[in-house]
Amino acid sequence: MKVSVVIPTINEENTIGTVISQLKRIDDVEIVVVDTNSTDRTREIAREMGAVVLEQPERGYGLAFKTGFRHCTGDIYVGLDGDATYPADAVKPLIDLLEINGVDFISCDRMTLRNEVNYTMLHFVGNSVLNLFIRILFRYRMVDSQSGMWVFRSKLYPRMRHLSNGMAFSQDLKIEAFKLGLFVEIPVKYGVRVTKPKLRTWSDGFRNLAHIFIKRVSN
Fold first, then answer.
1. Are 35 and 67 spatial neighbours (Cβ–Cβ below 8 Å)?
2. Which DSSP string corresponds to 80-131?
3. In Å, how far are 32, 34, 80, 85, 197 from 108, measured between CA atoms?
4. Helices and strands, counts by H and E, the chain
5. Is 11 left (phi over 0), alpha (psi -120 to 50) or beta?
6. What is the pLDDT of residues 77-92, one digit of tens each?
7. 22, 101, 122, 153: most buried by Cβ count inside 10 Å?
8. 56-88: buried (b, 16+ CB within 10 Å) or exposed (e) per residue?
């Protein structure tokens, strides 16, 4: 089956090559890098390594993925970051798990194997609060509702509704996946970030919390 990987980037020249190199070990893979105004060599490196590079000037985490998915042609969609914090070399075994077990959506859980170096207590508490409200409002139990690495069947995506253009896109995607198919979470080791973080912990956290209520009303 063809695999389509979407990677949103902003100034990831130090890590994007490593991520793409690991992904290219997958048979029949297309790699789509969606870049928002990088001022370094992110786009050039990605193109040199065979990725399709799309420019998305308007900033937005969900918007970047929406742009990327519109250009994907695979049977399996994969999303992860370009900063090498998620284990790109785990994508192939996750796809195997998807097929062997008849699963529709695999989300990678950073919480189970966390430590203070790669995932701080502040992020752990914030994620736990968001998990709690998703469980209360939707009756869906998640370990890591904010994870940005997923592997899922592309046929689910056109049926997903009310997906945020911002950071809440990740939790929206999982909520929709719960409704549409068999959803599982797999623990992965989250790496130490070497590039500047894009997440604004407090403001994005409160926005994601507010969006849970908005999504509940929309659904």
1. no
2. --SSS-S-GGGHHHHHHHHHHHT-SEEEEESSTT--TTTS-HHHHHHHHHHH
3. 20, 21, 10, 12, 19
4. 7, 7
5. left
6. 999 999 999 999 999 9
7. 153
8. beeebbbbbbbbbbeebebebbbbbbbbbbbbb
Backbone dihedral angles phi then psi of residue 180, each to the nearest 5 degrees: -100, -15
Q: What predicted TM-score, i.e. pTM, was given to this entire model?
A: 0.92
What is 3-218's CATH number? Answer: 3.90.550.10
Place of tokens 């089956």: 1
Domain ranges across the chain: 3-218
Output the pLDDT for position 192.
Answer: 65
Q: Are 18 and 84 in contact (CB under 8 A)?
A: yes
Which residues of the chain are modeled with pLDDT < 50?
none
Residue with tokens 């995932």: 119
Tell me the two tokens of residue 26.
């997958």
